[in-house]
């Protein structure tokens, strides 16, 4: 009988603790002599350190203390802390570009200057503004204005040339005076400005200048056949300039200069070969073949024993780095170092993505969307250090701490407290680093798997595809719905509905695409419109979570057959997402599966499943430590 208990004889105060990659959760409960459970409080905090390492202690202690405070209990009353046994799983993320647009001759300018002038398309030969007078009448000219020209002088020079019969069809400026120049022209033409490297525009060459109307994007120069029409290209030449068209897509204005030796290439960068070992096979796949080919190979090598990348290639470096990080976190003073050979990559998720990259050879900081592959790799070691964490928690709290159960099994156990859930059931734990599935059969047999890639990968995809360069902003785009601030008093939500406000909105959100956080609208610093931000967000979620949900469930389903599953409960932080659960339910519905978000203990939503599962497992155990057999 415990001497610490204040409650009725035989009751025990226990805390279940789930240390995850991102979050540490605690569940405090009192267990009666008959195994009955009264839940007293839950809590969660950020995980400290890499999951499964001694650094987790601080986070675990603060989660426990928080739960104790909520339950009105003290650490001295705790009979036992129950920790989850988790195979250390770390997920490494890497992204490599597999295409590169290079324009060796200066053939293209495409950007979004704030102030282009005029509108339309002008095609002619490039001439410096100082040489306009030398042009023969009747030949269309694109006028190039070097830096230092005043807008009045430039407009006067162009007007004078036009007056003497020169057909000026467009102009390219270094400064930002396009509107001022255009307003002074006797015959308005499209004018592109803010071209920093205007001196590099080749003279005497055929060029096309296009400026779209406000709120529009260019139509001709962003279309391969538009370029072919303007420059009279044959099919081979059209293929050659197609990267130019792609790089110019979405711009308000553009210039394309045709130089005879112009060499535009769309190079594929060899990223390297991924070597997968599993199911008695060794499979090799080129990473630049894309996500589908990679995932196909991963599926054929199931269960995966290990994965390597060809040394000296991008993918080789990527996987080696994940392995090294794991070796580092597993090292601890007084213990022999963990050999890198002990660390196996047990799963890989590949996702096709694109990254905006500056075009080599562009004149105005043009970017092209280059294809890339993102890889999430999951590493496991043979050595678990949870016992060490338990010892440290015990020392820090002054109460006994032990390992109370395996994570996957405990997650199902906790999910069973959701109203309407019973055996047989499968759970999907949508976390930060990994997506975990577990199946509990009618007979009580449990199987669990982890697959690489979850919430962090979604955040990373959003961050890079929108070129945000800020993880926190990307996390906000993932969590919250979008809106467009249309006036100081109203916004349009992403579903098209309009909301009005009594108080004016802050000026910094005016006319911006915003995320609707609980603290109010926050601008998304991107040049993309609401629709494309929304598309990027939803695609990132779908490519990670729908793919992984199906992959993980197939691995636990009897004979890999999804139809054999009837009920799926979604758990974990990413099950709180406002659209991921619906996407997964939609993907599972054709297989006849009932899928919904868990509500652990009837109150906790998808959170706290593992922690409360640990408490339930302890209460159900026929022999509870320090108490002898119940009854
Ligand atoms: P783990 O079990 O790996 O510690 P969690 O279950 O805490 O992970 O899930 C962490 C993930 O959940 C993170 O990627 C985080 O962005 C995501 N997440 C947490 N809350 C929300 C929310 N309200 N909406 C969308 N995603 C969320
Ligand atoms: Mg978790």
Topology of this protein?
Elements: E1 12-19, E2 23-31, E3 37-46, H1 56-71, E4 80-85, E5 89-97, E6 99-103, E7 108-111, E8 120-128, E9 140-145, H2 151-163, E10 167-173, H3 178-184, E11 191-192, E12 206-211, H4 224-231, H5 235-248, E13 253-258, E14 264-268, E15 273-278, E16 281-286, H6 291-300, E17 304-309, H7 314-330, E18 344-358, E19 367-380, H8 386-397, E20 401-406, H9 407-415, E21 425-430, E22 434-440, E23 446-452, H10 455-465, H11 471-479, E24 482-487, E25 490-493, E26 498-500, E27 513-517, E28 520-523, H12 530-556, E29 567-571, H13 580-588, E30 594-597, H14 609-620, E31 623-624, E32 628-629
Parallel strand pairs: 1-4, 4-20, 8-9, 9-10, 10-11, 21-29, 29-30
Antiparallel strand pairs: 1-2, 2-3, 5-19, 6-14, 7-13, 8-12, 12-13, 15-16, 15-17, 18-19, 21-22, 22-23, 24-25, 24-27, 25-26, 27-28, 31-32
Bound molecules: adenosine-5'-diphosphate and magnesium ion.
Residues 20, 429, 431, 572 line the site of magnesium ion.
